[in-house]
Amino acid sequence: MKKLAFLIAFVGFFSCKEQPKETVETSIREVQKEEVKKPEETFGIAIHGGAGTILKKNMTPEKETAYKAKLEEAIKVGHAILKNGGTSMDAVQKTINVLEDSPLFNAGKGAVFTSKGTNEMDASIMDGNSLNAGAVAGVTTVKNPINLAREVMVNSPHVMLSGKGAEQFAKERDLELVNPSYFFTEDRMKSLERVKEVEKAKEANKTVAFYDSVIKDAKFGTVGCVALDIRGNLAAGTSTGGMTNKKWNRIGDSPIIGAGTYANNATCAVSSTGWGEYFIRGMVAYDISALVEYKGLSLKDATKEVIQKKLTKLGGTGGVVAIDSKGNVSMDFNTAGMYRATMNADGELTVGIYKDEE
Questions:
Q1: Cβ(45)–Cβ(75) under 8 Å?
Q2: I need a labelling partner for 289 at 20 to 30 A (CA). Which of 74, 128, 199, 323 fits?
Q3: Are 219 and 87 in the same domain?
Q4: Do 8 and 100 fall within a single domain?
Q5: Are 144 and 30 within one domain?
Q6: Active site residue 222
Q7: Residue 167 burial by CB count (10 A; 0-12/13-18/19+): exposed, middle or buried?
C-alpha cells in the first residue's frame, strides 16, 4: 500500500505538468493489481502400492513397466482432480479406486487370500479439515472398500464398521457389490500356497526360520494416497487385502485411524504400508503428525524419526507416504522397496519402486 500512496502523491505533486488522465489511472490500476496479487496455488499428491523385499533382480522388465504404468495412471487421476479445483478427499478416493481395480496391488481386485482361501479387505479415509474419518474391516463383497469407508464417514454416526454389518451398510448406500469370486487371482492363490508350504516345512523342521522371506513378505501390501488441495485441505486414505494366510479375521493397521491413516490440516496427511501389527503399536501415522505439531519437525525429519528409528527399533518394517500443509512430500520406508509416486502443482511426476530411486 505504501507504493500506491507514493504514486498518488507523486501524481498530485506533478499535476501541474497536466499528464493525461488516462495515463495516471492506468498507472494506479497497475499498482493496485500488483498489490492484491494472489499467492500461487499449491497442491500435491503422493501414493504407495505396498512395501517389502522388492528387488530389481527379482523383477522382470515387463512387470516393472506394468507397475510403473499403473502407479502413473492412478496418480494422474488424482492430480487432474486437484488441478481442476477438486477436493483432496475426492482425489484420494478416486486414485485409490484405480489401484483397487488393478490385480497388481494387494487391495480390491488384487487382495491376498486368507488361510481359508477367502478375501477380507480393510480400508480407511480421513479428512484433514474436519478430522472426520471412516473405516471398514473384513469386507468380502464390496468392490471398492475405500468407497465404503467414505460412506461410513459421511453417512453414518460411526468411524469403523466391520464384516457383515459393513456389507449391509454398503448395500443400503447402493455401493457396488460383487461375488467374492471377483477377487480371485492366480498370483495371489499361488502366494497363499507358497506360504502354506513354508509353514508346513517349519512345523516339520524346527530349523526353518520363521522369518523366511516368503512368510515375511506375506505381511506386506496395501495401497494408499495422500493429497493437498488448493483450499489447503489435506486428506489420506488406505486400502488393503491384509496379510496372506491371515487367520481368525485378523485386522491390520490400514483401517485404524492414527496407525494406517491420518490427516490434519494443521500438520500433514499420512498413509502407511507394512507389517500392520507394528504400525498399530507405534501409531505410526499419528506419531508423524504429532512430531510435526508438537516438536516442530519438518515432514521429512518426522517420517525419518518414526520409520527409520522408532519403527525399526520396535522390529517393524514398512513405509509411509506423507504430504504436509505446504505441499512438501516424504516417502520413507525401511524395506528394500516401496511402490510409490508423487506429483506436484507444476505437474512434475516421480515414480519409484526400489530403495535407490529418488
A1: yes
A2: 74
A3: yes
A4: no
A5: no
A6: yes
A7: buried
CATH number, position 316:
3.60.20.30
Report the number of distinct structural domains present in the chain: 2
Task: Give the residue-averaged pLDDT of 113-126.
Answer: 97
pLDDT band per the 50, 70, 90 thresholds, residue 206: low
Q: What size, in residues, is the chain?
A: 358
Does 89 lie in the same domain as 11? no
User: The C-alpha cell of 109 is what?
Assistant: 481386485
Strand order in the sheet with 121-127: 160-162, 133-139, 121-127, 234-240, 223-228, 44-52, 337-344, 349-354
With a threshold of 0.85, does the pTM exceed it?
yes
Per-residue pLDDT at 212 exceeds 90: no
Residues 17 and 116 in one domain: no
Residues 15 and 108 reside in one and the same domain? no
Are residues 160 and 109 part of one domain? Answer: yes
In the predicted model, is pLDDT for residue 219 greater than 60? no
Burial class from Cβ neighbours inside 10 Å (0-12, 13-18, 19+) for residue 282 reads: buried
Burial class from Cβ neighbours inside 10 Å (0-12, 13-18, 19+) for residue 345 reads middle
Range of the domain at 19: 2-35
Catalytic residue chosen out of the listed positions 87, 140, 222, 261: 222
